[in-house]
Structures are given as C-alpha cells and as structure tokens.
Amino acid sequence: MSQNLPPVDEARLAAEWEADREVLANLAANGDVARIARPVDVSFRGSEKDFERVLTIASQFGMVELDREEDEEGDLFLFLECVQPVDEASIRALTRKCLQIEILCGVEYDGWGCEAQTGAVH
C-alpha cells in the first residue's frame, strides 16, 4: 500500500542538503563510519491531527514514533526514528522522503540527527 509521493521542490531539497552536509561533516569529524546503520531521528512540526497522517505514511518507510513535544512557543513536534546508514545517498533519500511527507501532511520537516558510530566497541 504505497503512497504516490509528490515531487519535491529541488531548491528546497538543495537547501536541506546544505544543512545535511554540515551534519555529516560534524559526524565525520567525530570519527563516524557513515556506512554503519544506526538509529536516525527525524522531526516534524505540526498539529496532532497532521501527526497521525505522518505516522501512517512514515511507517511505510520503517519509521517509528519516538516522542512528541511542545516547545516554549506552543509549537508541537513529532520525533520519529529509523535505522539506516548516514552515507550521502542514504541521507539524500531520507531527506527527500521527509520533504514528501511534509508536502502530503501539511507539516514542517525540521531535520534529522544521530550519534556518530565509529565501529569501536564501547
């Protein structure tokens, strides 16, 4: 039951990719091995009603709900998690999916994050 995903504005995708590259550079500076799959968090800002639709679509991509929070301004955030590597191709695909979810659900994609994985045993 796959959704027909809308096209993403390429200028928006390019802007998100600039931010993604900074996160990847910071991870690399901390010894990250991008090919190691790990939990990656993504967040969206929106309403509880919109979040239900986000969850329906995001679950098709293997994303699960982590948390919901309200910030000081009263904005609601939905935090999701998926497990994947963070190499360039994987992150580009994740960002595109999140921007498509943004379009379909009327929410605002607010980025992704994860912890560096060095492959070392802790």
Automatic annotation (TrEMBL):
Pfam families reported for this sequence: RraB (PF06877)
InterPro entries on file: RraB-like_sf, RraB_dom
Signal peptide coordinates = none
Top-level taxonomic group: Bacteria
Regulator of ribonuclease activity B domain location: 17-114
Spell out the protein name for this chain: Ribonuclease E inhibitor RraB
- Species per Swiss-Prot/TrEMBL record: Sphingobium cyanobacteriorum
